[in-house]
């Protein structure tokens, strides 16, 4: 009788410890929070731009300085699976006329492998002769 209890406890302990392995088996998604900042769009913000132009590029800031309204903070926090979260802070300073005077990025952003839709350059077709073709003339 005592053997059955000991054997049951050993099996239960083995089952519990097998669930907590060294490997990370459970999939965790990447969690971006705040303003999604890309290196290409942040590089477009230059001194001399107006506040609406910056807001068009980067969106609404996470924090606007409550005392002067002349400093905008864009905060991007990303955690990839089991890694430590990485925070990027982009600060845009304005003069009283609403023109960018200085920008500051605390650490470089990772380069994106593909270009997002808002950064895509739309080009016109090279030749207008394709318009004259009909749908049944696709081989020409």
TrEMBL record:
> Which Pfam families does the entry mention?
BamE
Question: Is Signal one of the keywords?
Answer: yes
Identify the domain of life: Bacteria
Oxidoreductase among keywords: no
Q: Recite the UniProt keywords alphabetically.
A: Cell outer membrane, Lipoprotein, Membrane, Palmitate, Signal
GO molecular function, one example? Answer: protein-macromolecule adaptor activity
Please provide the Gene Ontology terms (biological process) for this protein.
Gram-negative-bacterium-type cell outer membrane assembly; protein insertion into membrane
Return the Gene3D superfamilies for the record: 3.30.1450.10
Every Outer membrane protein assembly factor BamE domain range: 34-103
Its subcellular locations are: Cell outer membrane
Per UniProt, what is the membrane topology? Lipid-anchor
Q: How does it assemble?
A: Part of the Bam complex.
Family assignment? Answer: Belongs to the BamE family.
What does this protein's UniProt record list under function? Part of the outer membrane protein assembly complex, which is involved in assembly and insertion of beta-barrel proteins into the outer membrane.
Recorded protein name is Outer membrane protein assembly factor BamE
The upper taxonomy is: Bacteria, Pseudomonadati, Pseudomonadota, Gammaproteobacteria, Pasteurellales
């Amino acid at each position: 009788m005592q053997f059955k209890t000991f054997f049951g406890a050993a099996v239960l302990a083995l089952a519990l410890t097998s669930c907590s392995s060294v490997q990370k088996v459970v999939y965790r998604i990447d969690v971006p929070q705040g303003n999604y900042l890309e290196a290409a769009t942040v590089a477009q913000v230059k001194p001399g731009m107006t506040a609406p132009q910056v807001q068009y590029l980067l969106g609404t800031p996470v924090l606007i300085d409550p005392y002067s309204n002349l400093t905008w903070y864009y905060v991007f926090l990303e955690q990839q699976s089991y890694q430590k979260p990485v925070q990027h802070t982009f600060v845009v300073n304005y003069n009283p006329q609403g023109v960018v005077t200085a920008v500051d990025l605390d650490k470089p952003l990772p380069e994106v492998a593909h270009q997002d839709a808002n950064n895509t350059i739309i080009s016109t077709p090279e030749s207008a002769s394709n318009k004259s073709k009909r749908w049944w003339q696709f081989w020409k």
